Fold:
Amino acid sequence: MITTNTPTVPEREIDEILGVVRGNTVRARNVGRDITQFLRNIIGGELKAYSELMTESRNEAYKRMQEEAEKMDADAIVNIRFMTSQISSGGAEMLAYGTAVRLK
Structure:
């Protein structure tokens, strides 16, 4: 599966637009991470546990988007974007979306 954040696939022509595909996940922080990250916030530096949580969320949302495109028999996903939103005080949604296409 070819994936790109551009509107076209280099050196390929889009034959058919199949529609928007998306994948999402909602993740919550945990108490253990909150305590260590609170302390890190006081002294400064990267909040690694939260960075890892966001990376895992992005990967899961991306994978789910690809699975949806595969069900549509797509060759590629173009215009891929990521978006996040707060669901509750301790949880956030990560959304990956793009346009599934068939290539010539």
